[in-house]
Amino acid sequence: MIGLIGKKLGMSQIFEPSGRVIPVTLVQAGPCTVVQKKTIETDGYTSIQVGYEEVAEKRVRKPQRGHFKKHESKCYRHLKEFRIGQEQEYTQGQVIDVQIFKQNEIIKVIGTSKGKGFQGGMKRHGFHGFEQSHGVHESFRGPGSVGQCAQPSRIFKGQKMAGHMGVQRVTVKNLKVIKIDTERNIIMVKGAIPGHNNSIVILSK
Fold this sequence. Notes:
Helices cover 9% and strands 40% of the residues. The chain is mainly beta.
């Protein structure tokens, strides 16, 4: 589905005429430029590759520079591919902005969660912790038993333990578009989305 690359600006709130408060996240969505168009004849499927945040040629790596030069495009900091249907018409160099979205539309947002460093099992995985009485005197927030003694005498891969938390790709579905500012390319979606302020997010229909 077609979408846009954007930048999370932060959270705010909107008041309805009834006085009800709606928490919203402001996203600077686009404008994005179509760098490459893929077709069934050449690539086996149909999609478009869009670029966001134009940068100087010296700011991109040599392979990317060759890719942009091959498609006679300016250089962009971020690239993302969106699958489209054969009936959807997009041309190379076309600019896509927030007008592809409509008010009250349901969209999907993909972002990278905030990094929280090394965290214990309770914060990282939501463990309950130990009883605060009945003989517990050494570990109150520990993970408990994590393996077996004699067989197989090891810790299984993927065991929920303490470790690095955050900086993961997170997808939030069914977010409602509350308001669209076409002049500033800002879209307001209901609720929170992953990532810190000024982080890159992907919005898709």
